[in-house]
From TrEMBL, chain A:
Compartmental location: Cell membrane
Ranges in coiled-coil conformation: none
One Gene Ontology CC term in the entry: plasma membrane
Keyword list, A-Z: Amino-acid transport, Cell membrane, Membrane, Transmembrane, Transmembrane helix, Transport
Pfam families listed in its UniProt record: BPD_transp_2
Protein name in the entry: ABC transporter permease
GO biological process: amino acid transport
Membrane topology category: Multi-pass membrane protein
Highest taxon of the lineage: Bacteria
Keyword Membrane included in the entry's annotation: yes
CDD domains according to UniProt: TM_PBP1_LivH_like
Membrane-spanning parts: 6-27, 34-52, 58-80, 92-116, 136-160, 192-214, 226-250
GO MF terms held by the record: transmembrane transporter activity
Lineage: Bacteria, Pseudomonadati, Pseudomonadota, Alphaproteobacteria, Rhodobacterales
TrEMBL record, chain B:
Source species taxonomy: Bacteria, Pseudomonadati, Pseudomonadota, Alphaproteobacteria, Rhodobacterales
Cellular compartments annotated: Cell membrane
CC terms in the record's Gene Ontology section: plasma membrane
The keyword Transmembrane is annotated on this UniProt entry: yes
Membrane-crossing segments per the record: 25-45, 51-83, 95-117, 123-143, 150-168, 174-192, 223-245, 251-284, 296-324
Protein name from the UniProt record: ABC transporter permease
InterPro entries reported in the protein's UniProt record: ABC_transp_permease, LivM-like
Length: 291, 364
């Protein structure tokens, strides 16, 4: 019973990792770059929602505040792509890694200057409500998290699999020049995907904030989300969610039955094992080039 | 415009292209050796710090700049070097023995990591090294008998042949020790890069496929480069431990890894000189910021209330360099020098970046 309780809490946690990982995967799918600032975008999204929604700030209703935050974060991420990331278009991936690490620090500084470094709590309508059944307690926040994540994953998967823009984004990631030749507006698609990943990050941030206080350093959670994305295989949306769930469940279970440091290491150990045995992740997309 | 007159084929791979560059290095070394006689203790300590950062930067440069393996976890190797050295010295071994052993331990650890890691490319390697960093950080806390756990460990003072090289009691000696290590490593590094091994590093960086076609064992080359890289970083870590004196796991945070990346990218990827320029920048900017902060207080602007300003400024510098000068400070210097060397003939678009398009790494 205790184990089941841990697993349910872990699933909800894993969904948040999975959502942040979805953001990585989206950008990876469209430009084959990895956005190391995704965790910080999640943090910024959560703070913007807090700024719109909390009564001592702007005091909008919760749903409206989240919508506003998503729109604003869409704009911010879209702008970041337009102004900064586009400058290194076509450069090796390494440049983007360093650029986004630096961007993450900028986001953190901005959030810290506006909202301060003391932890704040986002006011949500489902705080503190629990469902009980058969000796297990499930908080409403956990259920909402799991539900929203499932819906988002399916929606994004459908977006990339079936829509014109989604397919164009995948084409752009495989070969930019070829994508241009067949008429894909690569840069515009990239901006759009960045904006979308900002909105997804906001959802992740709000869901994270329903489970506890937030401060500008929660962006470091992004590192765990990487592990999730890599376990799933960068470039696979369901894989990212699966990776997030694996990490989310194993962490509390390891924390219960193993020393604390080992529990902290566990996501990375799993990730290394996956990388060593399957270098492209569980849903690998690496293919050999046939010459 | 200088014309280098070559009289033998060996001149093509000479360490110095012409006598003047050899003389310049000699003058620089002489100035560095004489530095303790001119500056006070504060700046001498800063100089030693810069040298240690340059050493660590050279370590990372082998991996990132010369073999094209991005590592986000080099702070882990600094930590291993520092702890190995301090632990061995606490066990009673002399510094002359523990210092190289610390380097070898770190190098072996790096090579062991590299063996599975070389199967990964680009982004996967960066993330794997990040994971290794987190694991090492937790291991440091777990291995309390050796590392002192959360409490930390004391780096004992260095004595070689009865002469004290303590960081506080005899700072000049410590500085000279750092300088000697850095000079030897730099000399070795520069020589490595003109040997077949060093050339194969460059070949692997530029194109794995063509390197393999030329008969280079890519896996072995990358593992060797990563091992060397971590070994040199381990040496820097050992010195850094002595420089700090008393340290725990918090000294080697993820920010150190990122600062190291900053050193190599801002300095200039693929140039040994870049590691030095980057190290100077990274140690000088915090000083400049604190001086500027003091002066701004004088005219009524108080910045001390803004935490994280240093990181913010570093980030902006980094973003600026990535976008406008990807070849770093040394690359910029080379451009300026070329402009003067060919004086009236320089043209505007001489160094314009070629338009390039990203191709997938998912095809190998």
């Amino acid at each position: 019973m205790e184990l089941l309780q841990l697993v349910i809490g872990g699933l909800a946690n894993g969904c948040i990792y999975g959502l942040v990982a979805l953001g990585f995967v989206m950008i990876y799918k469209s430009s084959e770059g990895v956005n190391f600032a995704q965790g910080d975008m999640m943090m910024l999204g959560a703070f913007i929602a807090l700024g719109f929604g909390n009564t001592d700030q702007m005091g909008l209703p919760f749903g409206l505040a989240v919508m506003c935050a998503m729109v604003l974060m869409f704009g911010i991420s879209w702008g970041v792509e337009r102004v900064v990331v586009r400058q290194i278009f076509g450069q090796p991936q390494f440049a983007l890694v360093i650029l986004t690490i630096a961007l993450g620090f900028v986001f953190r500084f901005v959030a810290g200057s506006i909202w301060g470094y003391t932890p704040l709590v986002l006011e949500t309508p489902f705080a503190g409500q629990n469902l009980r059944g058969g000796g297990i307690v499930i908080s409403l926040a956990d259920l909402v998290t799991i539900g929203v994540t499932l819906v988002l994953t399916v929606a994004l998967w459908a977006f990339f699999a079936f829509t014109k823009i989604g397919l164009a984004a995948q084409a752009a990631s495989q070969n930019q020049m070829a994508a241009y030749i067949v008429g894909v507006p690569v840069m515009r698609v990239n901006s759009l995907i960045w904006g979308l990943s900002g909105a997804v990050a906001t959802v992740a941030g709000v869901l994270y904030a329903t489970r506890g206080a937030i401060d500008p350093n929660i962006g470091l959670l992004g590192i765990k989300a990487f592990a999730a994305a890599v376990i799933g295989g960068l470039g696979s949306l369901p894989g990212a969610l699966l990776g997030g769930l694996i990490i989310g469940v194993i962490e509390p279970v390891a924390g219960r039955y193993a020393p604390g440091e080992l529990a902290k290491m566990s996501p990375y150990i799993i990730m290394l094992i996956v990388l060593v045995t399957r270098p492209g992740g569980l849903f690998s997309q690496i293919q050999m080039k046939k010459v | 415009m200088r014309v280098v007159f070559k009289t033998s084929y060996d001149k093509d791979i000479d360490l110095h292209e012409h006598g003047q560059s050899r003389a310049k290095i000699a003058v620089l070394l002489a100035v560095m050796v004489a530095l303790p006689f001119f500056v006070g203790n504060y700046y001498l300590a800063e100089a030693a710090n810069t040298l240690i950062w340059a050493l660590a930067g050279m370590g990372l440069m082998v991996a990132v700049g010369h073999t094209g393996q991005v590592s986000l976890g080099h702070a882990a190797f600094l930590a291993i070097g520092a702890y190995a050295n301090a632990a061995l010295m606490n066990a009673g071994l002399p510094f002359l023995l523990t210092f190289p052993i610390a380097g070898i331990i770190t190098g072996l650890f790096g090579a062991i990591i590299a063996v599975p890691a070389v199967r990964m490319s680009g982004i996967y390697l960066a993330i794997a090294t990040l994971a290794v960093f987190v694991i090492v950080e937790e291991l440091v806390i777990l291995l309390e008998p050796i590392t002192g756990g959360v409490g930390g460990i004391m780096a004992p003072s260095i004595t070689i042949f009865g002469i004290s090289f303590d960081r506080y009691a005899s700072l000049e000696n410590f500085y000279w020790l750092c300088l000697a290590v850095v000079a030897i490593v730099t000399w070795g590094y520069a020589n490595l890069m003109r040997s077949p091994t060093g050339r194969s590093f460059l070949a692997v960086r530029d194109s794995e496929v063509s390197a393999r076609a030329l008969g280079i064992n890519v896996t072995r080359t990358r593992a060797l480069a990563f091992g060397l890289s971590s070994g040199v970083t381990g040496l820097a870590g050992a010195l850094m431990g002595h420089y700090i004196g008393f340290f725990n796991y918090e000294l080697f945070s993820i920010f150190i890894s990122i600062n190291l990346l900053l050193v190599v990218t801002i300095g200039g990827l693929g140039f040994i000189q870049g590691a030095f320029l980057g190290a100077i920048l990274i140690t000088a900017v915090p000083q400049a910021i604190s001086i500027a902060r003091d002066n701004l207080v004088g005219i009524g602007i108080d910045l001390s209330g803004i935490p994280g300003l240093d990181t913010m400024i570093f980030s902006l510098i980094l973003i600026g360099f990535i976008i406008y000068e990807p070849t770093g400070l040394y690359g910029r210097w080379l451009k300026i020098r070329t402009w003067f060397e060919i004086f009236p003939l320089a043209r505007k678009d001489m160094f314009r970046r070629q338009k390039s398009y990203l191709k997938t790494e998912r095809m190998k």
